[in-house]
Amino acid sequence: MAESQLESEFSRTIRVERIGREEIERRIEAKPDERAALAERLGLASLDLLQADLRLKRLSRGRIAVEGRFEAKLTQLCVVSLEPVAAQIEGEFAVEFVEAGPGPETEAVVAIDSVDPPEPIEDGLIDLGEAVVQQLAERIDLYPRAPGADLTWQDEKPAISEPKRPFAALSALQKGKKG
């Protein structure tokens, strides 16, 4: 199944025909069941808030600009102690979408130092919710730590033992023959 056919947990689509040269604004917020599904998808203990204020505008050559700001409140588990770690993430972003033109598909050439390539517009729709989720996923701390959690590795101290004597067994045998 292609990724585009998967159902998003937080889908807020808009038809591209509704987007003109005049900027339009949208405010989206995830519902509790959507946040629970997103928390599972993103590996979070909980996602308590996810909302975004977005601005959309049509650009030249079939491109759509989406700019916005999102806010999320979430809880992760500490990678050391497994204690809950609360976090608040806010961010601004800009994403560009492009309508696919008629004709055969072509490969996009992306330079390493360029900005992100435009996202494709599929079936005349832009999923604003999924765009926000992708921005959130990029900013989640991969290794959250609770205050005071320490992961300093210490090797066990080896037990003090007698020095190894390679010929001790032979010496014991010889003593047995003599005695």
TrEMBL record:
InterPro entries recorded: YceD
Source taxon at top rank: Bacteria
Protein name, entry field: Phosphodiesterase
Natural source organism: Hypericibacter terrae
